[in-house]
């Protein structure tokens, strides 16, 4: 950016976002309790099409209008275009407001002129006095524009701040954690809490309260750890995770029960592990992502399993969605051999995994959580540390319980529309304009409308998570009637051979 360009509060800019393309945003006031990072000059930027904010260094910012054509020509992604559209919509609103204010001011001026004529008829002022008044402060002379008519006061962002994003929240929920240092919209977030990557300050009382950690290193780039990384399980989620680890420069050794799935990653630079035990013994941190509690236990306790490769200091991170009892059992056996354990199940789907946009919920050894910093940055949009082992499993089951129940309700509404003679497309059109609007809703309804149930999140796995969530409720004598009803619908869908389709195939349980 040229040294002569001066930026200020309220300006539209392009922000350099590390591994991501420059993204459109606006310089805004930072929260009062969020101190500016020390060192080079930077601005607090709110990005369009996302729910993200960031402190961005001046040299990583470019004026929006001057570089608009250049940026649009270089970036063709759908999410990027959505963000640009959001900027243009914002500009339209600003222009409309300016025109409205100008019209209001013109009306006031005309009114004042009329009043002036009436007053002139009563008492005519000397010419010299009239001239002095016309050029003085507060004058409505057309040759001088009063300060309060400016569309924006210098150094202060326009009031439209609240409406300058038009994107979805899970994306781009938002677009990933973009920029130098992300801040989730939580009033209690402080710079100290987020200035160190994936560092969470726990209270002395062992609180499980959380702070979000962004997915980009403080200098705007990911520096891969020099530790050797192992990864076990290359399913829908694991494949995307490993691909992003490799892209970000990590040294990765992979293993999968079906060995052929490893071939693509070997071509991309990964090493091949012959057994889980071999991977763990040769790597510093080993991640695992498998289908269910049985698979998670077999991976650790089975022949040539993880436990046989554990040595003092070796780190094992289980990213599978399982019940808290399974997690506790695995943690106990790993630690008994001198290993270090972290549970880190991920929220998302295949597309989010491929995009490096997963959300990571972690619990257990906080030191391992910190050691996984660059890995979590590569695979996810944000991560949370939830305290002691088992908390992440509980939280993930609750999240998937809500998601699974919502999907069953969507399918129920679509079928009810059909049988009552209503247009399913019209229903979707209405829903996406309502408060229920989300990427999830849109995608799953599109699956139903197109009859395309290619798996993005297997139906059999969401049913498994519902079953485990119901059991979690039973363990604390808490009712889960909605989840129980949704679970029965998914069981019906499984009986109709929909297990290996996307969760949206639960729709077929209503039409058979």
From TrEMBL:
Top-rank taxon: Eukaryota
Biased composition (Basic and acidic residues): 96-129, 145-165
Protein name: Cytokine-like nuclear factor N-PAC
Family: Belongs to the HIBADH-related family. NP60 subfamily.
InterPro entries: 6-PGluconate_DH-like_C_sf, 6PGD_dom2, 6PGDH_NADP-bd, GLYR1_PWWP, HIBADH-like_NADP-bd, HIBADH-related_NP60_sf, NAD(P)-bd_dom_sf, PWWP_dom
Compartments, record wording: Chromosome; Nucleus
Limits of the PWWP domain: 9-67
Any Gene Ontology biological process: transcription elongation-coupled chromatin remodeling
Record GO terms (molecular function): DNA binding; NAD binding; NADP binding; nucleosome binding
Region (Disordered): 96-173
GO cellular component, one term: nucleus
Keywords, alphabetical: Chromosome, Nucleus
Keyword field contains Nucleus: yes
Keyword Cytoplasm: no
């Amino acid at each position: 950016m040229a040294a002569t360009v001066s930026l200020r509060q309220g300006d539209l800019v392009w922000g350099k976002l590390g591994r991501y393309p420059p993204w459109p945003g606006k310089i805004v006031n930072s929260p009062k309790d969020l101190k500016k990072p020390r060192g080079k000059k930077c601005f607090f930027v709110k990005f369009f099409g996302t729910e993200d904010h960031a402190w961005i260094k001046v040299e990583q910012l470019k004026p929006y209008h001057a570089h608009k054509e250049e940026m649009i020509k270089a970036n063709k992604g759908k999410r990027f275009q959505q963000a640009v559209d959001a900027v243009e919509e914002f500009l339209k609103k600003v222009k409309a407001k300016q025109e409205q204010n100008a019209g209001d001011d013109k009306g006031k001026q005309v009114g004042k002129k009329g009043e002036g004529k009436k007053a002139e008829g009563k008492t005519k002022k000397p010419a010299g006095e009239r001239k002095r008044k016309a050029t003085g402060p507060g004058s409505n002379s057309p040759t001088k524009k009063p300060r309060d008519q400016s569309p924006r006061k210098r150094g202060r962002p326009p009031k439209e701040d609240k409406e300058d994003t038009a994107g979805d929240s899970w994306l781009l929920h938002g677009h990933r954690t973009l920029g130098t240092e992300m801040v989730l919209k939580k009033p209690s977030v402080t710079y100290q809490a987020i200035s160190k990557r994936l560092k969470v300050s726990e209270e002395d009382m062992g609180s499980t309260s959380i702070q979000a950690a962004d997915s980009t290193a403080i200098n705007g780039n990911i520096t891969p750890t020099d530790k050797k990384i192992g990864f076990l399980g290359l399913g829908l989620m694991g494949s995307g995770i490993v691909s992003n680890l490799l892209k970000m420069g990590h040294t990765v050794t992979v293993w999968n029960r079906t060995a052929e799935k490893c071939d693509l990653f070997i071509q991309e630079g990964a090493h091949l592990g012959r057994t889980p035990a071999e991977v763990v013994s040769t790597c510093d941190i080993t991640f695992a992502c498998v289908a269910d509690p049985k698979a998670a236990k077999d991976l650790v306790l089975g022949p040539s399993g993880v436990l046989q490769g554990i040595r003092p200091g070796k780190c094992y991170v289980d990213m599978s969605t399982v019940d808290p009892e399974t997690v506790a059992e695995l943690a106990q056996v790993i630690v008994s051999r001198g290993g270090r354990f972290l549970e880190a199940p991920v929220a998302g789907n295949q597309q989010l995994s491929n995009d490096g946009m997963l959300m990571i919920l972690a619990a257990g050894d906080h030191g391992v959580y910190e050691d996984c910093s660059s890995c979590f940055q590569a695979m996810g949009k944000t991560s949370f540390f939830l305290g002691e082992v088992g908390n992440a499993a509980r939280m993930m089951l609750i999240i998937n319980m809500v998601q699974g129940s919502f999907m069953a309700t969507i399918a129920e509404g679509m079928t009810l529309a059909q049988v009552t003679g209503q247009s399913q497309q019209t229903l979707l059109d209405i829903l996406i304009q309502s408060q229920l609007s989300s990427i999830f809703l849109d995608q799953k309804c599109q699956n139903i409308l197109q009859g395309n149930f290619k798996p993005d999140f297997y139906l059999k796995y969401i049913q498994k998570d519902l079953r485990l969530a119901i059991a979690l409720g039973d363990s604390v004598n808490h009712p889960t009637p909605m989840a129980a009803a949704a679970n029965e619908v998914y069981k019906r869908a499984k009986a109709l051979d929909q297990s290996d389709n996307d969760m949206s195939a639960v729709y077929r349980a209503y039409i058979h």
